[in-house]
Task: structure prediction
Amino acid sequence: MAKELGPIIEELIEKGGLIVLAGDFNARTGTVGVLMSDEHECRKSQDGTLNEAGRYLLDFCAHHGLKILNGLTNGDWEGKVTSINARGSAVVDYIIVNDHEMIDRMEIQKRIESDHLPIQVWLNLSYFPLVRGLKMKIKRNRWNWKKDKGFDVAFDQCLQAKLVALNGCLDSVDTLVNSVNNIFNTTADEMGLTPNQTTTNYLSWFDKDCREEKQETRKALRKFRKSRSDEDRRDYVNKKTRLKKLYQQKKKEREEQMWLRINECTTGDHCLYIPEMDPFRNV
Result:
């Protein structure tokens, strides 16, 4: 890791860059923090083991001025375990930064798809002087436009009257965007336009059995995270194994059903395959 990441980190630090390392480091650091000013930071951790890989990671962080946020940040003051399997539980997945103020919060999520629990991080956007490339989800309405004669002119007049009223009443770009969106939606509603509504019914393998089994598995995970007992850990691992087998079974049944439906198209007309395949697409 030092050979590969070291030069990159040093170059970023020289340029004043911000660094976030995240993922599975296969290292257990216990409650030991990174050495800062001849003293180790005190972190909390549900995994008290410090192994050789953990010492190496701590030395690497100290050398480059990096900080481990697990057990030292809002949302994870306890240093919750990040990996749970049949052999035990441990903290091996980390969020490591060169400036902790860029992170508002981090949480170890209650997901059951993997032995490793995902870590969710909230960035402190006010810390960044300029944020580029961030994608935001924007709700867009598509309206069924009327083709009546003169409707375009009437809609434009109604819209302009509302936009003129905005002049001098805005204090930020966010307010402008929200106000204009609201005006468009209000005008469309007043003019009798209706939004397009399309629904697609897909045949999914994830059914009631999967939902119930997943709920039970997540309950077992929550119970273990609260009790930290070996018995609850084994119960969670067994339930997760059973859930994985159920998923595989349901996917296999869905695939068999798909091919059965296709084989029933015996007319030789390839167009009949399209409606038969539609329920199985994008699932």
Summary: Helices lie at 2-14, 52-64, 151-164, 173-190, 208-227, 230-263, 273-277. The first helix runs from residue 2 to 14. The beta strands are 20-24, 32-36, 39-42, 67-68, 83-85, 88-90, 93-97, 103-108, 119-123.
